């Protein structure tokens, strides 16, 4: 087989676009399309189909992708020594899937550091959560997914714990006055904003059930950013991950935090990546970068 076809396959897996793959390979779109037709014949499969997020890989493409990636790495190792990734000389766009509470904390740190260091790389951030991260990895070709207590981990992915976290209360101190710290009675009888995956029920509701009380929920949200905007000028209390709460407070002096006056669970935040990117120098650099940025979260 023509090894150039494997390069085209690899680039399509990374870019999910014929146009972007052509630009990356310095080829015409017609040349990439022609190579894709040949690949479809060789593997007797469509390999990539057009979808709402670009060229989506088929099950067969996902199956052979790790083998092709390893084959290309082995060939590359025969003819050249691996070079350390240099973010000051690369136009690489790193794709990162993460939940909006983590995006609020991490995205600005990543952008600020890149600007300070004069890096020429850039980032694309995509929304996901503990349940949907595998879908985000496939649909967006994410280099990394970051979420709390990720579900559905398999042998196709590797993960690493970044830090541990818990929950804290956030409210508008100019609108609502609470004790410092907030008392249990104040918390139980306050009006709440709910943030949950489906917008219908969250773990805080279970805490109230244990107290044999009905939580007074005035509004439900599926994203923390929208919930934070909504409580400005309102009496609502939010219960959210502590790292996100502190990040929001840094940006708005009206907000205040208080420990949750009930026993709340702890959890871990992890990053996940495709096992076929385990030894990829760019992926390794990105993971080291994220580790560095989150190293002080528990400090």
UniProtKB/TrEMBL annotation:
Pfam families for this protein: HTH_1, LysR_substrate
Occurrences of domain HTH lysR-type (ranges): 1-58
Any GO molecular function: DNA binding
Gene3D superfamilies membership: Periplasmic binding protein-like II, Winged helix-like DNA-binding domain superfamily/Winged helix DNA-binding domain
Keyword Repressor: no
Keywords attached to this entry: DNA-binding, Transcription, Transcription regulation
Alphabetical list of InterPro entries matching this protein: LysR-type_TF, LysR_HTH_N, LysR_subst-bd, WH-like_DNA-bd_sf, WH_DNA-bd_sf
Family: Belongs to the LysR transcriptional regulatory family.
UniProt-recorded name of the protein: LysR family transcriptional regulator
Organism encoding this protein: Alcaligenes pakistanensis
């Amino acid at each position: 087989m023509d090894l150039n076809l494997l390069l085209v396959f690899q680039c399509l897996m990374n870019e999910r676009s014929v146009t972007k793959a052509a630009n990356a390979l310095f080829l015409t779109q017609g040349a990439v399309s022609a190579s894709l037709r040949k690949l479809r014949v060789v593997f007797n499969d469509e390999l990539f189909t057009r979808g709402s997020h670009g060229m989506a890989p088929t099950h067969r493409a996902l199956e052979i992708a790790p083998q092709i990636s390893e084959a290309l790495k082995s060939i590359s190792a025969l003819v050249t020594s691996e070079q350390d990734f240099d973010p000051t000389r690369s136009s690489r766009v790193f794709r990162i899937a993460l939940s909006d509470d983590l995006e609020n904390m991490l995205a600005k740190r990543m952008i600020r550091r890149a600007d300070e260091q004069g890096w020429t790389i850039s980032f694309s951030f995509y929304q996901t959560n503990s349940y949907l991260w595998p879908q985000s990895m496939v649909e967006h070709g994410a280099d990394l997914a970051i979420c709390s207590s990720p579900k559905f981990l398999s042998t196709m992915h590797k993960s690493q714990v970044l830090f541990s976290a818990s929950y804290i209360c956030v409210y508008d101190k100019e609108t609502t006055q609470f004790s410092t710290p907030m008392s249990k009675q104040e918390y139980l009888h306050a009006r709440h904003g709910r943030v949950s995956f489906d917008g219908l029920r969250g773990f805080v509701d279970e805490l109230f059930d244990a107290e044999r009380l009905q939580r007074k929920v005035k509004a439900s949200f599926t994203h923390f950013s929208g919930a934070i905007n909504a409580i400005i000028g309102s009496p609502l209390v939010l219960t959210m991950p502590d790292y996100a709460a502190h990040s929001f407070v840094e940006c708005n002096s009206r907000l205040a935090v208080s420990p949750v006056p009930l026993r709340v669970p702890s959890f871990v935040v992890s990053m996940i990546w495709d096992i076929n990117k385990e030894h990829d120098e760019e992926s390794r650099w990105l993971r080291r970068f994220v580790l560095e940025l989150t190293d002080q979260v528990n400090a």
